[in-house]
Fold this protein.
Amino acid sequence: MKVRKAVIPAAGYGTRMLPITKAQPKEMVPVVHKPVIQYVVEEAYYSGIREILIITGKHKRAIEDHFDRSDLPKRDKYMEELDKILSDVNIYFVRQREQKGLGDAVRYAEAFVDDEPFALLLGDTITLPPCTKELIEVYRQYKTSIIAVEEVPKDKVSLYGIVACKPIEDSVYLIEDLVEKPSIEEAPSNLAILGRYILTPGIFECLKETKPGRGGEIQLTDAMRLLNKREKMYAYLFKGKRYDIGNKVDWLKANIELALEDGELAGEIKNYIRSLEVSLRT
Ligand code: UTP
């Protein structure tokens, strides 16, 4: 069955981005020309998806406003591009009533997803090139849940969900187990879940059976662990860039790197960075 739907959880507190996120959603934090969530919606769109559910919550109204059609008289190419996408996709919103974790947020997507496989994209994460497009291609071959992973340094494994897996073909692994934020000693590998998934609807039954885990939150990784006992699941090694805009260093890096790739901004920013290099050396 084709992957036609995307779910974007965007209801988290964003405490690591405070005070930026005191009164605005972290998904609305700008990266060069656009708020983060727009990159995520565009990723789903350019991966061929036209039905998108965004899971919002308290203090997140700006996200809904952003995806309204604009009636501003002044338009530029960025506004035109956004309008073009908006005229071509259906975006729905549902509110997570309490911030009880990513797993809990995903539960709100059950009615929208129904009995189809779906793409799950974290609303605070940018991947370039679009990871979802690659996952959908792998899904066509394996027709079951596939989780994007990236290699992280050994001393960083305790920050991520980590998979235990065995290689099947280039960049594809069969998942044997998953563990949320393990210690260095416990970690079965250094392959970390990066925030892009294709999941079968079987995940919803698993979420219902998942008890609050780390931090008292319903952890998606715990539910996927259960799903892995019932269905085959694969990991896909994504070789592109991913930025977790939920932390300040990644957010700043994303701004610098994407500005350096922007036709209009690159020249000035390069000159500016070169001038910094001189002052950094002295
Ligand atoms: P994070 O682990 O980054 O948590 O969520 P957070 O609460 O947003 O941020 P911090 O840790 O307080 O800084 C990963 C993804 O899960 C969503 C977030 O919006 C983000 O896309 N999420 C998390 C929810 O939708 N609901 C939740 O209750 C928790």
Notes: The chain has two domains: 5-244, 247-282. The chain has a mean pLDDT of 95. Residues 9-16, 55, 96, 99-102, 104-105, 122-124, 246 surround uridine 5'-triphosphate (CB under 6 Å).
